[in-house]
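User: quick one
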Amino acid sequence: MLAIPFMEISAPAAEAALDTNPDAFRAFYEQALPRVYGYFLHRCGGSVQVAEDLTQETFLAAVTELQKGKRIRTPIAWIYGIARHKLLDHYRAQERLERGLVLAGQADELEDELVVPDEEEARERATAALASVAASQRAALVLCYVDGFSVREAAAILGKRAEAVESLLARGRASFKRAYLEAGA
Amino acid sequence: MSSVDPLATILGGLDRPVQPRPEFAETLLSRLFDELGEAQAPAPKPRRLHLGLPRTLPSTPLRLRLVLIVLVLFLLLATWAALTLAFGWHVVFGRAQRAQHTSRIFKEFDSLDLGAPSGMATGVVSNQTRLVARFGRYRLWVAPTKAGGSCSAMVGGPFGSGGCDRLGTIPLRTDYSTYSGPSQGLDRSHSSPGNLAADAAHLRSIGGSVDPRWSESVEIRFRDGTVIRPRIVWVSAPIAEGFFFQAIARDQRRPGHTLREVDALDAEGNIVVSDLSALQLRRMYSNDPPAEAMVDHAVRVAQTDTPLGEASLWQAPSRFGTTCTWIELAGRFYFAVSNALQNCQIEGYSSKWRAELVRSGSVVLFYAAGIPSSGSVRLESRAATTSACVPTATASFSTGSPSRRS
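Assistant: Done. Structure below.
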C-alpha cells in the first residue's frame, strides 16, 4: 500500500517529553496543532468548523491527561492517538444520524476509471468525496488507506470483525470512487 | 490493496499539516493554558506573515505600497470567501460549459417559446444554456430567462426532468418521474404528479430547485420517517438557484412506502416551504396558521357569521414573497388556497380564478379568489338557499349548508 501511515510523518529528531510545563506545552502545541488540525480537516470533508471542534476536543483531552501528572515521551504520536479516538467518535455519531437519514445512491454505476490529476486537485476532490461516504465506511477507509492500518487492526479499533471491515471497505471504495468521479465531472 | 491502488494513493495524499485560523489557534492555546492552571499565558510570539516576500524589504514607501496591495488582495479574497460561504455557490455559471448551437439541448431550449400563447412564454435566453452539473449519468443544463428566472433540463436518462421559473420567485420547485409498469409506461417530470408519485414503488426520481435566499437544504420525507437529503448544486448569478436530483434507489421502491413531502429548509433546519404535491395533499386544517406566513402582518380581508361562530379570511405575506391565505373558524385554521406550494400564491405569477369549499361540521364556507375586477361571483345551489357572498377586494366569502351542493 502506498499510503503513508500518519504515525510515520516525520517528527522532530529529538522530540521533547511533554508535561504541564508552559514552555514545553507551547512548543508542543505549535508543532502539533497544524498536524492535528490537518488530520481532522481532510477526514471531515474539509469542514473548518468540524475540524476546529475536534481539534479543540483533542487538545482539551490531552490537557486533562497532562493534569493527571503524566509525562509523555512521544507527544506527537500520543496526540494523534487521542485525535484518532475523537475522529472515530465523530464518525460513530454521524453513523447514528445516518441511520435515520438514508443517503440513497444513484442507481447507475459509473464505469469511469479513477484518474489521479494534479496533487492539489486530487486532494480537494478526495476530501469532498470522502465526506460523502457513509460514516462507517469512511472510518474503514480512513483507517486502512490514510492511517495505514491493516484490516485486522482497523477491525480491532472499530470493534468489528475483519470481514465486516472488508465489506465496509468494498462499499466505501465504490461510494468514494463514484463521489470522486462526480466531484471531478 | 495492491501497491498501485489509485484509491490508496489518493486517500494517502490527504495527510498534510494545515495551519488553522490564527484566531482559533490563539484562542485555543489561551484556553488550554487556562485549563493547565496558568493564570496568564505567556505572551504569544510575534507571528510572521508568510507572504512569500523577500526577507529584506525595500524602502518604506515601496514597502507601504506592497502592504497596501497585500491588504487589498486579502480583503478581496475575504469578501469572495465570505460570499462563497454565505451563499454556498459551487458552480460559477459564467464558467460552465456552454451548449453548442448545433446541439440537441440548445435546440430544445431554443424552441421552448415557439408557439407559446401570449403571456406564457418563458423568455429563456437559449444562447446562455450551460451545463452546470452532473448527477450520475444525468446532466443538468440551465439557461437564464429575461425576467430573472431560469429554465433547467436534466437529461441523459429515462427519468430526467425540467421546467422553468420564469421570474425566479418560486422558493421550491419539484419534478417527479414515475413508472407505473410496462402497460402505463413512463410518466416524466410532472410538477403535480398525482397519487402515483406518493407510492415510492412507482417513484423513480425527484428533481427540482430551491432559492438560496431562503433555503440551504432539501429533505424528501416519507411517511415512515425515512428522510433523504439530496445533494444540491448551487449555481451562481444570473441563475442563483440550487438544483437537486435524487434517484429513488431500489430499496426505497417498495409498495406502501409512501412519500409525504419535499421540504426546503433554512440554515437552522427550519422548514421554509413544503411541497405536498406528490400526494395531491392539501392540509385541510391545522391548529396554526401556515408556517410560512408572517402572522404579524396578517390582514383580515373578510369575515362572516356561521353557526360555529365568526369565520375570518386572512391573508399574510411570507418571507419569500408569496401571499398566504387561510380561514380561521372555531379555533382551527383552514388552508384556503389549493396550490402546489401549500397555501401561498407565488409572487409575479398570474393567479387564476379559483374557488374552494371548506367544510367544518355543519358549516360550509365558500371562498373564491382571482376574480377579475369587472367580474362577479354567483353561487347557485339546488335548493337556491345559499346566503349572499361577502365580496372584498381580494376574495368572495360565503356560507352555506353541506347538504346542499352548490
